[in-house]
Design goal:
With 461 residues, the protein is an alpha/beta fold. It is built from 17 helices and 15 strands. The longest helix has 24 residues, at 434-457. The structure holds 4'-deoxy-4'-aminopyridoxal-5'-phosphate. Pfam families: Aminotran_3.
Length: 461
């Protein structure tokens, strides 16, 4: 077989990809007809494709490259670790220095008494750990009936059987017989789409109180935990009304259930502080982490649990673990990533300088005729596309059409911005510069113009 490299013509790479590579969340034959985009290099916040086109990556990959692309220190940390100890497991009474050092560092960074880490290789795996862990925790405490985990519609917690069941994506549940038993979904705090005539504050309280109602209906003795993203990411960067989280915290405190904050996106600086729980003043018993932990340079995730949860779990043998739990190379890379994020003041600067600058610019997009609202927290933001701002109306076209048109226009204009239905979302690397923020806004505006024209011309408004 001829060697396949970056230097091959794009068409040949596309044909091979179409012939052999099954893509996540992709309609395969549609993509094969169109031709996949081949990304070949990246540096800072910029991606380059096989045709030499450059894109400002306003999504940091999949919400993960917090540090930006191309940091040689991480490659060196990986190479050093591979030479010294490329692999060993943490089962059967052994450990290694990278896992010790990373768990200790995570314990320092996470708030409160979240001092103990169970490693995984992804957010999905970590949430599967959480499902088994909370049920085992309650069994250990002599309350085996506490099994149900309450989650929210339109939440995203991963793609495995367990984590996709926790998630509230109906299109995912429709495939593969989900959700698995003992997962219950309440409504999401998405005021723009579902708030009707209520004020955001009233709506936030109403949605939070659904948790208390669900605990009441299901029976507190049957509920193990509530899981939520501090800010929903894949659901469309839904920043809840200010009344929501304090009420959720009150309800979790008042009832005997564990609170799991899924920080896979919000963690490691995304919301302007180290964790979304700090930005939104949440006190979880368990945190799910992944993505920004290694800035995506290595696959790694984990569940960080409180002193009390660890104390109870330490009284049994938890029959759970992955071959790559605490993989030494992934741990070494994550440690180096955390060192740089901290020592170079990247999280600090993202919160105090870049976020306010981006917020000011991002909110100017509401002047565009197609934009109904612009929301942003730290470096994760969204805009809602609408044909009629005042009524927050939906388009005549099928939901998601306008978003898709806008996303294509972004790509055509050197910007990676994702769409979730008819919301456009951003989550740029934390190292994005102010000049790049200006470019992001200019390109987003141009893409909105292109989308507006197409939607009008094609009668889709
Ligand atoms: N939780 C959240 C909040 C996520 O956004 C994601 C991924 N987008 C996951 C879990 C799953 O993580 P992974 O894709 O690493 O399995």
């Amino acid at each position: 077989m001829t060697s396949i490299t970056n230097h091959m013509p794009t068409a040949e790479l596309q044909a091979l990809d179409a012939a052999h590579h099954l893509h996540p969340f992709t309609h395969g034959s549609d993509l094969a007809k169109k031709g996949v985009r081949v990304i070949t290099r990246a540096s800072g916040s910029t991606l380059t494709d096989s045709e030499g086109n450059e894109f400002l990556d306003a999504m940091a990959g999949l919400w993960c490259v917090n540090l930006g692309y191309g940091r040689p220190e991480l490659a060196e940390a990986a190479a050093r670790q591979m030479k010294e100890l490329p692999y060993y497991n943490t089962f059967f009474q052994t450990t290694h220095v990278p896992a010790i050092a990373l768990s200790a560092r995570i314990a320092e960074l996470t708030p409160g008494d979240l001092n103990h880490v169970f490693f995984a290789s992804s957010g999905s795996e970590a949430n599967d750990t959480n499902m088994r862990l909370v049920r085992t925790y309650w069994e250990q405490k002599g309350k085996p009936s506490k099994k149900i985990i309450i989650s929210r519609k339109n939440a995203y917690h991963g793609s495995s059987m367990g984590s996709a069941s926790l998630g509230g994506m109906s299109a995912m549940h429709a495939q593969g017989g989900l959700p698995i038993p003992d997962v219950h979904h309440i409504e999401q705090p998405h005021w723009y789409a579902e708030g009707g005539d209520m004020s955001p504050e009233e709506f936030g309280l109403e949605r939070a109180r659904q948790l208390e109602q669900a605990i009441h209906d299901l029976g507190e003795d049957n509920v193990a935990a509530f899981i939520a993203e501090p800010i929903q990411g894949a659901g469309g960067v839904i920043i809840p009304p200010e009344t929501y989280w304090p009420e959720i915290q009150r309800i979790c405190d008042a009832h005997e259930i564990l609170l799991i904050a899924d920080e896979v996106i919000c963690g490691f600086g995304r919301t302007g502080k180290w964790f979304g729980s700090q930005t939104l003043d949440i006190r979880p018993d368990i945190m799910t982490i992944a993505k920004g932990l290694s800035s995506g340079y290595q696959p790694i995730g984990g569940s960080v649990v409180s002193d009390e949860v660890a104390r109870v779990m330490d009284e049994c043998e938890f029959a759970h673990g992955y071959t790559y739990s605490g993989h030494p190379v992934a741990c070494a890379v994550a440690l180096e990533n955390l060192r740089i994020l901290d020592e170079e003041g990247i999280v600090e600067r993202a919160g105090t300088e870049t976020a306010p600058y981006l917020k000011e610019k991002w909110e100017t997009l509401t002047d565009h005729p197609l934009v109904g609202e612009a929301r942003i927290a730290g470096l994760m933001g969204s805009i809602a596309l609408t044909p009629h701002k005042e009524s927050r109306a939906k388009f005549a076209a099928e939901a998601g059409t306008a978003g898709l048109i806008c996303r294509e226009a972004c790509f055509g204009n050197g910007l990676v911005m994702r769409h979730v239905g008819d919301r456009m979302v951003i989550s740029p690397p934390l190292v994005i510069t102010k000049d790049e923020v200006d470019t992001l806004i200019e390109r987003a505006w141009t893409a909105l113009d292109v989308a507006h024209k197409r939607l009008t011309d094609e009668g889709l408004m």
